[in-house]
Amino acid sequence: MNMFNSTFLPRKLAALFLVASTNLGTAFADTAIIAGGGYDLHGSQAQIELNVKWVQQVLQRAGLSVHTFFTDGGDEAFDVYRIAGDVTEADDGADAKSRVPYEALARVFRNYEEAKTQYYNNTVPENAGTTRADILLPALSEILSANSDSDTDSVSESPPLFIYNGHGGPSRDKPDEVTLKLWENTSVTAREFHALLEERSTDLRFVFTQCYSGGFHRLAYKNSSSGLELADSTRCGFTAESAWRLAEGCSASVESRDYRDYTTYFFAALDGLTRDGESLTEPVVDTEGADGAENTGLRDAHLYTLQHAHSTDLSRSTSEDFLISWQPWLERWLPVSDSLPANEYSVIAESLATRLGLDGEDTSGRAIRKQLKKERENLASIEKKISEQRDSEYWDAWDLQKMAIEKWPFLAAPYTDGYARLASSGLLQEISDWLSALPRYQSLLQNQNQLQSLYAEQLAAERQLTQWYKLLHLRKLSRLKSDLYVKGDVNEIESYERLVACESQPLSREGKSLLTDKPADPLQVSQQRD
Amino acid sequence: MNNLEHLATKGHVQNGDGGETEPGRFRFRTFLLFLFIAGLCWPVFVITTGSLSALFGEGSVVNAWHLQPRRLILQQFLEAYLYTLLVSVPLALLAVADYRILVHKLKKPKYTGLLWILSGVALTVYLLSSTNQVLLPVLLTAICLFTGYRLFLWLFRMA
Predict the structure, then answer these.
(1) What does pTM read for this prediction?
(2) Which of B55, B63, B87, B128 is most worth mutating to test chain A (most A CB atoms within 10 A of its CB)?
(3) Is the ipTM of this complex over 0.90?
């Protein structure tokens, strides 16, 4: 058992000890903190662990000092699960079928996914401790204050970078009440996080990839609940979603090899390599190129993600969140023209429109809306098919269960001596074989396989639908950015530019440039193309 | 006598000296007219801009319809309702004045609403100070409100 989880040590003392142990020798380097994993064993997918390990490597390659907090820390109890045949380097590639000895029984009693599930202890290297709220928050606080103390000695450092890779909870109507769902079902709201930062006037850059993560943009403001006045400290970041929507990580993809959340694209852009180690097929555009910045800024990585991510995320940066919050109340209700001002968002919107198959003459809002309607109808029809298929699968399983239980009544009571006898006598394999020979079982098998295909179709349709929403979102940002410089006052423009400057900083001041081949400003690229 | 001409005489009684009095029912109907116009200005404007956005494809609220909780949109609608009272209350007062002058005093019910709606458009465009974007929605809203106003007066007679 991990000593920090021991009931013999007061929690606060454990946290302080933990911090002391993770801070050694790191005071003068650029700092990154990763918090990741699920909120309990059943919400702790291997895909999250995979991402955390990869992000950790990217940050270390960039020369950052990385503090990683993952699930239960160093506790040896199981804290992660994977579905055999679906994921990870630990998967030996064997046929998933071979892992389910009583496949027919598992399918009929609707435990097939459970039968393929494997639980294990996390293998995150240099795991500094648990993400349980009462341990993580004091630890964070100490690391951040150690970092701000060191700022006085080293002006070349970037603000610390906090990355969260896990699950999030919603708020009914207040963005700063969205939560990080931390280990042992503890949680931290954006408001509590904000209070922690305000207490120490801490600078911070952040990347939140969980559902409803947009609420965490409020960390950048003086007042966590409302207003556009920025905090005195420099804070900015990136979130996978708005405060109102689920992120890709909460979709069916979190169970699949095809998992691609915000970090998948964002850190690939910073690293120049994908999570699988392949080179990026599209270059990252350096918007700060004109200023001669050496490293790729986080904002460039975000713009790359906006342009190339084919996921269900409608990601946003704090400066974008600022633009949306700034929008004058009347403008919100007015129709807008089809023409877009020239800026980075219109360039990305144009590129996305081309990728989505809209030609130059037909990129009107009306054409987009027509496509959106089509995609929504497509998704609705898939959801209807899933519902019908589920019914059909349910009745097949129910009838087969009845037939089996009539012959072997103890199948209905798996925690009894009778069932144990069935299992120990080897009868389970015989029952499984008997079930698989029934014609009704073939129908069940077909239904279950079709359901899996439909779930994959649903995910693809959700991703495609999101691309159309993203196109509208980018067009809105393009107009808002232009409007800000026409209608905004000096303070508002200054605040916006302060956020953009914060976002544009590279991953590390001292780290080497991770990318070599950078084209010019996207706006210039677009104008040259024209 | 058409509906509006009938309306021009309805609600007024002669007193012993031949002068007119305003019974409570007349004042109540005038008050209802005020509420009707003040209450409808913003919702009619939103319906108009929403229709235009949907027709031409884009508008922040239309875009946000599937991405934000509806209660948040409703909250923004109600906030805007309060802001627009600055326009809708003067408009409602103008409507009452128009009614009292043209229908009640001058007995010219055929022209009622015309001056009101024109001055209303001018006032709205002046107060909202973003002429290009708001002109079309304001004009369409004006047509809807004018129709509503005349309908209200017609229903008045039926009451």
Answers:
(1) 0.85
(2) B63
(3) no
